[in-house]
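From the shared-data thread, chain only:
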Amino acid sequence: MNTKLTAISCAVITAISGGPLAIADDLEEVSVTGVRGKPRSVSDSPVPVDVFGAESLESVSYTDTNDVLKTLVPSYNVSRQPISDGGTFIRPAQLRGMPTDKTLVLVNSKRRHRAALVEIGGSGTQAADIATIPSSALKSVEVLRDGAAAQYGSDAIAGVINFILKDNAEGGEFSVSSGQYSEGDGLQTTASGNIGLPLGSDGFLSISTEVSKSEFTSRSEQYCETWFCLDKNNPLYDPSAGYARYTEDDAFMAGSKTASLESDVVNPWGQPNSKAARLFFNAGYNLSGGSELYAFGNYSSSSADGGFYYRYPGNGTIEDLRTEDGSIYSPLEIFPGGFTPRFSGDVADYSLVSGWRGEWGNGLNYDVSARYGYSEIDYTLKNTINPSLGPDTPTSFKPGTLANEETQLQADFSRDFDIGRAQPLLAAFGFSYMDESYDITGGDAMSYAAGPYATQDPWGFCNADGTATSAGLGVIAGGSSLDCANPDDPVYTVVGVGSNGFPGYSPEYSGSYSRDSYALYADLSTDLTDDLFVQAAMRFEDYSDFDSELVGKLALQYDINDHLGVRSSVGTGFRAPTPGQQGTTNVSTRLPNGFPVATGLFPASGDVAGALGAKPLKPETSTNYTLGLTADWEKLALTVDFYRIDVDDRTYAISTLDVSTDTASGAAYDNYLALVDAGVVGAESIGGVFYFTNAFDTRTQGVDVVATYPLEWSNGATTNLTASVNYNASEFTSDPSEYLNDEDQYDFEHFDPKLRGVLSAMQEFGDFSLLARANWYGSYENYNKVGGVKQVQEFDPIVMVDLEGKYRFSDATSVSMGGRNIFDQYPEKDAIEDYCCGRIYSSATVVDWQGSFYYMRLNHNF
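Structure, as tokens:
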């Protein structure tokens, strides 16, 4: 250490100036290069930064960039969401225990646009879709694990992830891989490539592509609950229950085998079917005078489909209805064994960034850029019905389209100033303007239509006193079994409105939500002495839909001696709710009380949520503290960083409010009346409602430890060891009981493992190399009330081991074979009756629950 490097900003990764990164894999020798100064080693950074070069990225068998980061960064977690509406297509992730929307994503040091999806529940995350960035396009990745809103603006509360694209002007590579789970399902195939081309004599064009396909998995058991059971061998099966008349019916049981379009169980839980084609390009051209024109962008097209909850007779969807001719119709005429809706989404994502950067004669560095990004999800729902349309219902629907669009103009400047010390003062400043919009486009008319069976007695067969009208008498004369005096007669049955599982967006809930913002920032940094680096940053940001915010940050790094250093930072931040979070609406089937019901999410600023007590969203604010130690003892490189993130007015979904038409249900009936008064069509079929609000304050704190060590053997061979551990815990610092029930409060603080670690070892034996990686997840807990009694299940720690062997036929060609989770470890099954409907593992946990996966990969460089 004791380096004498020109100062750069605290965040090190030069996103303010837009400078590119030059990165190697070794922790101490990694350098970060930008237009604001000379390189500064990662261990001399005043904040924790993980840097992964090409070798580290290629050592991971995953191709989904989310999974690559999960493997390399213990404080980064991503879960599989099999029945989670749009979460099936765009997976939610966490950095340092904070949701994705509190981590800013950059590509080539420029902000990446958000995805169209707003996650339903939790923090209502709307963030960049990292999966659209193929790993084949990456030269390196840098993860800044520190609050950085003062440098980069809203969203950088937990940190920053900067993806650096390949910039080769020649050569390239090709890779194809295929693998399958040991259960015999989930076949995955990926082909990717990159080629570098010269642009004249002073430029480059690097093009990367990836095509992938994955088949579904099922880690499930047959549907069997107290309210409906298809497994006669399950202890819950009750021959005396009302549903037995169906399960004793051979035709119904035969029909149930095709109730789901996938799997041999009616409610499969696992990864969805998916396929994707992605392209990224990166280009640059050097002009005279040392300036450069650059551009990069992408196009991604992907689709995925997953199942919803099984619909069984008598659940409010499959009900007998009295038709216009007086006969009885049942959806079992269409789906003789019930049905499981199949939800799919086509995701289109594209962007273009271009700019001009260089240095003027007075020493002022400049970077002027323009950015455009667009993300769209087009939904399709199959194998379902619009119950209110009765026998006239389609079985396939287009519920609508969500789109997020962003345009940004940015100018960044930096210059060194001589202040009479050994090193100059680096001053960076700039401004940006951003326009963003979120559009909800309505679905086909049948996906949201309120058909005749959304109300009682749609054909006017009965009088209020229980006698038949003339129309009723007419159908009775024709042989109808109509009995107006019987309140259980199908003539009085009311069923749900819209495509069941995900009603389409009606004109009332469609529209565009837009805003613009501008920001000004300044950043000063210098080495006050040969051993002390200091940095200060401030940012002013103003949104058209919120008040302005001023945030700042201070940081330092001090070399105690040639081997030890300390670093620390303190900063404030904020995150403005996105237009999507403010405008999204959704009605889907959820389990607020362990039982599937139609549940509605409504905008906090809208009439519906307002009638339930909601207030318009406001920005979250934060304070971030870090204190770290860096060490370099000969071969051992070590960093230890403590952190604390305080977030006030945190955006979160309230616990679902019950809705009931039963006048004796108290608050649930009041909620039903509120929906009716707000004009919600089909309010009778909604069993729960919720909205996003600024619910509470939280504190997240923990420690990151990263160490590397080359273990040398007497024969001259070297085993490179890398170990990283994260401890992370979140707690409430205000009373959340007004918004969250006991279960949601407990799970917020205890559901995710607090400890996570990764230990990797790489050994080469001539042309053969072996990589072993152990992924360790600490214990975690889950809460449920069984019969009104609190039950907590503690899950034991688990270690999943990956092993890969690679053989190089030549400098250009290699073949790898390996396995993930080779000992076929699973988390413990549900023991407190918290999961229903065929689910045996927690589908939302960050601990993988798919079992072993084995693969082969061919790589060729040219």
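The chain is about 10% helix and 45% strand.
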